Amino acid sequence: MWKWLHPYAKAERAYQLCNTLLPYFVVVSVLCIVVGWVWGLAYAPADYQQKDSYRIIFIHVPSAILSMGAYSSMAIAAIIALVWQLRNAELAVIAIAPVGAAMTAIALITGSAWGKPMWGAWWVWDARLTSELILLFLYLGVLSLFHAFEDKKAGGKAACILAIVGVVNLPIIHFSVEWWNTLHQGGAITKFDTSAIDPSMLWPLLINILGFAALVGMLTLIRLKNEIIQVEKHRPWVRQLVSRG
Amino acid sequence: MLEIKALTCIKQDRCLFESLNFSLLSGQIMQIEGPNGAGKTSLLRIIAGFSQPDEGSVLFHKKNITEDYDAFAQSLLFIGHKTGVNQQLTAYENVMHWLTVHGYKSVQTEIYDLLGKLGLVGLEDVPIRTLSAGQQRRVALVRLWLNDAKLWILDEPFTALDKKGVAMLQAQFQLHLDNGGAILLTTHQDLTNSFSSLQTLVLEYRH
Amino acid sequence: MQVSNSYWTLFCSVYKKDVTLVFRQRAEIVNPLLFFLIVITLFPLAIGPEPGLLARMAPGIIWVAALLSTMLGLDKIFRDDYMDGSLEQLIASPYPLPLAVLAKVAAHWTTAGLPMVVMAPVFSMLMNLESQALGATILTLLIGTPLLSFIGAIGAGLTVGLQKGGILMSLLVLPLYIPVLIFATSAIDTSIMSLAYSGQLAILGAMLAVALVAAPIAISSALRVSVS
Question: Which domains does chain A have, with CATH numbers?
């Protein structure tokens, strides 16, 4: 794998790779999200208990899954950056972080909007909501640490270390919050059971998840391209790129 | 002993130096000159292994210093702008702590003798913060008498020292060079001793 | 020059230096304790003095106060060494940096965590905590406060080079403290109900074991980044 990865250590190659991949991500994300939303919001049958308000899962569940997915990809990029001293992987960490934070925020907002009719309150100290909130704190920590450094090289490395520390802690935090919740709240909240979901709702949901994944990939690639250009702006290949328009 | 290969350092979008090459043999002393902001300290910190260059490598005895940094540290004596002397501790405690951290053992009388030789008689056991800038600098420079490192990297060692102190320091430099050591230093003052093996590297301020 | 190659000597020297420095400025050891005490005093004033209510909230209050007061000393753990260049000297030492870091964290715990463990009986008395919970309070503080020092030192190492690192450090570190808070308070809660709380202690102990190995490495790389 190392031999395959190595050429992309060069910024220019990484930039080209981003360019090659980007169209696919754009197509997949636009297609899947449009199809998934139209299907999910207009055609999928209404839930017999929650009526139409359940339809928010077509945004809520994908963003929640992707908020965690983005964090693990960020941590993997951080490990690669620190172990092999790859500057591009560092840039990828910085590129993913805001996208993941946005996904977490979407999951929290939609979750709370869903909670109002279902639980009767905007915020309930449900284990999943709480974990998601802490995940948002971790994202914001990585971002504010990076931006606090004047030297962006040092900032990138510091952000990588924090991302790795965070990913080691994440399962512990998640487990502890689950455990705390069952201890304090018992079975007060009836959870929407995803595994028992009807296929007519499951398919649009899966399509939406794929669409959101491609969306995260797309946004990350666009941000990564910008970061690479920023860092390499004095290099001849960037100047050529600019002069070509 | 020390080899610098194609070293490039970019700080805050400004290229300090690019493709810098030089080498330092045992018995040689090199003075790095240049205006403020030219990157002298950055260069020394890269060679000491505190920061990473954007490109290029630092070889010590033909081995990249990042390969086995702890072994390189064994042969390195670094005294920077910030000398690593704690303000609350006494001169004796500071020297003692530095020796242990670097794996040296020493006898109490030896340290007191040396502090006396450097003009700190009677000041060995008061907190460093009550001493003058020049005296504080001397406490840091005691290390030059108490190590067997081959490579000395000194950033502005003469700051705040009086003439007598500068002369003593240069005598110690000569002794180190005669013993097969090497010295890399920056200074705005000219060296008053004539070192036969002196080389100069000039860093220009680049925009 | 004799060269001694003992990791233990290095550990002792770094530990002794940090502890000595704290004891020379006694305010550093007394102030966090006073802060701990004052925070605990504020709660009965804010929520009312009924003993039952206080006893119910005591585990949470004691632990939140413990988290906040360890944060006070954390900012200083590497700050002075960074400012005066001692950190560079530690990095340029032939010994592994994680060892020196371990000594510094141990010194921080001795001067910040241990006093809280010792004072625990007083605090539980103030909060009307039932007497059977005293053992659990002391034990959780004993296992939990070193964890706080380790996790906190990662944040301190990452922010030591920044001008205003103090608040940022709290933002980074407090979310990571959550598991410690949950398991520690739950252990005390369980002990109030006269049930076995060894499970929670075991989890805290396991986390401490992981931190003991992994945290010094993370802190060292954070320090190297901050110094560069």
Answer: 19-243 (1.20.120)
Question: Is the CB of A236 inside 8 Å of chain B's CB atoms?
Answer: no
Q: What residues of chain A, 145 to 174, have a C-beta less than 8 Å from chain B?
A: 150-151
Shortest distance, CA C143 to any CA of chain B (angstroms): 29
Name the phi and psi angles at A93, rounded to 5: -60, -45
Give residue-wise pLDDT tens across range B148-199.
Answer: 889 999 998 888 888 888 888 899 999 999 998 999 999 887 777 778 888 8
Spatial distance between the Cα atoms of C109 and C104, rounded to a whole number of angstroms: 9
* Spatial contact of C149 and C109, defined as CB atoms under 8 Å apart: yes
User: In this complex, do B12 and A234 lie within 8 Å of one another by their Cβ atoms?
Assistant: no
DSSP assignment letter at B204: P
The single residue listed with the structure tokens 């540290």 is B73
To which H or E segment does residue B177 belong?
helix B163-178
Residues of chain B positioned with their CB less than 8 A from the CB of A234: 10, 13, 15
Q: Identify the pLDDT of residue C102.
A: 95
Contact A176 C172 (CB under 8 A): no
Distance from CA of A135 to the nearest CA of C (A): 9
Give me C41's structure tokens: 């005093």
- Is the Cβ–Cβ distance between C151 and C173 less than 8 Å? yes
Q: Tokens 């060894």 — which residue?
A: C198
What is the three-class DSSP state of A136?
helix
Terminal alpha carbon distance of chain B: 32
What's the predicted TM-score (pTM) here? 0.89
Q: Which residues of A touch B15 (CB under 8 A)?
A: 234
How many CB atoms are closer than 10 A to CB C125?
Answer: 11
Question: What is the spatial distance between Cα C154 and Cα A161, in angstroms, rounded to a whole number?
Answer: 9
By the 8 A CB rule, do A173 and A134 touch?
yes
Tell me the angle at which helices A127-148 and A152-185 cross, rounded to the nearest 10 degrees.
160
* Alpha-carbon span A124 to A212, nearest angstrom: 26
Helix A127-148 vs helix C165-192: angle between axes, to the nearest 10 degrees? Answer: 160
Cα–Cα distance for residue pair B91/B140, rounded to 1 Å:
9
Question: Is C183 an 8 Å CB contact of chain A?
Answer: yes
CB pair distance less than 8 Å for C178 and A158: no
- Angstrom distance (rounded) from CA A138 to CA A15: 28
Closest-approach residue (CA) in chain A for C226:
A154
Per the CB < 8 A criterion, the answer to whether C91 and C14 are in contact is: no
For this complex, say whether ipTM is above 0.95. Answer: no
Q: Over the stretch C29-60, which tens digit does the pLDDT of each residue have?
A: 888 888 888 988 898 899 888 888 888 888 88
Cα gap C187→B32, rounded to integer Å: 62
Nearest residue of chain B to residue A232 (CA atoms): B13
